[in-house]
Amino acid sequence: MEELKRTGLGDKARLLATLTVLLVAGFLGTGYFAFLAARDSIRANIEKNDLPVAAESVYARLQKDLVEPVFVSSMMANDTFLHDWIVGGERDLNAIVRYLGEIKSRYGAFTAFFVSERTNRYYYPGGILKSVSPSEPRDEWYYRVRSMSEPYELNVDPDLANADALTIFINYRVIDTDGAYLGAAGVGLAVASMTRMVGTLKSEYGTNVYFVDKSGRVVAGEPYGGRGSEDPALSPIHRRDVPLGPGSYRYRHGSENVLLFVRWIPEVNWFLFVERTEDSAILGARKALYLNLFVYALILVLALLTAGFTVNRFQTRLERTASFDPLTGAMNRLAFQTVAEHSIREARRESRPLSVVLFDIDHFKAVNDTLGHAAGDRALKTVVQACKAALRASDLLCRWGGEEFLILLPSSGPDGAFSAAEKVRTAISAAKLGPDGPSVTISAGTATIRPDEDLNSLIQRADERLLEAKRAGRNRTVRAD
């Protein structure tokens, strides 16, 4: 038996599309806003906690590394050997060379020095380096130390004795017991050693550390990605009037956001830059986002499959309820009329015959009255089952009303319609209402469509033949001329 073609596919597609849009929007929105919240929280924690803590750790490490050189310089400035050697006229050059060499080797200094106020000589472990002069720009530091009130200063300058290597000098004033200024002594630390310290700090704290002087020049370490002071993103920060207090900044390097914390280091007159890429910090949050999106995608697929399956089930039930008789499973009258009118149009267009068989159950009221309505229902179901078994797949069976049924026979002329009706009548007569129940019979009338005839006229002619079959004694088929 031919089933009705399913309808409502457009509504189903729109429903699933709407559900998909809502779920995708909800999942993506939830996941994305959760990621943004996590990113902002991580960023704020880095800017307010991680980078300042790392900066303070670097500062503490720097101070610790400078404590011993300051102590050594203080010891040199107050050493009686140095005072006696100066008062003795600075005659034994080898003595001061050995002294400075021993200071350098014992304390691991990059250099050790003494500049005499009396002779203006600059002594270092290799002997006399030069004579200082007020007119020499490179000797400006000495005359600044001579006039200052503090006992010492830290100064970063190129070291003439070591190929102008950038060096942190501890310049300590040498004063005799009478308060007379005798010169400046101290040790120097190579800035390169600070670069090694920067590397150690980077591995310990997971941050990038470097130092910038007041002119904006990077003096130790290097910015993220190995860029120099001329990087367009960093130059404005390096060269701006950075406040002496701490401050947080952000800048872009390619496609990455870099978080930066700046601290002033008064001991060396440098700015300490501590930075970390945002991408590395939020890597965990980004992985969580991708995992959530994957889970959301699975949920979305399962939800759509479940919705599609549920919609299909209910759509099938609704369509079947709307198109078929709930008791017998035969097509109902409204659905049959729609299909039959379409079949008539096709038959005319293709010049094919089309017939109908109208039949009802003989003495059906007696079945209900004697055996009960349940037996009447079983009789209706038995008739439909026997009828479907006897018909072709292309034929349509309709419960026309009560115990009356209508069969549409595409591509069947008068002979084919009569043959089909007799086949159905015979099958129904052989069927039983239960294992020990009685059988029922039908009376039928057939009609084949005429040119320009509509469905109502066709059925009316079949009904007339049905009445003839009943008047002739029932349990028979009467065909139209």
Write structural notes for this entry.
With 481 residues, the protein is of the alpha+beta class. It folds into three domains: 78-192, 2-Layer Sandwich (Beta-Lactamase); 193-281, 2-Layer Sandwich (Beta-Lactamase); 325-479, Reverse transcriptase/Diguanylate cyclase domain (Alpha-Beta Plaits), CATH 3.30.70.270. It is built from 13 helices and 16 strands. Strands 3-2-1-6-5-4 form a six-stranded antiparallel sheet, with helices on both faces. A five-stranded antiparallel sheet has the order 8-7-11-10-9. It has a five-stranded mixed sheet with strand order 13-14-12-15-16, sandwiched between helices. Strand 15 (442-448), helix 13 (455-471) and strand 16 form a beta-alpha-beta unit. Helix 1 runs antiparallel to helix 8 and helix 11 (373-390) crosses helix 12. The protein is rod-shaped, with a radius of gyration of 53 Å.
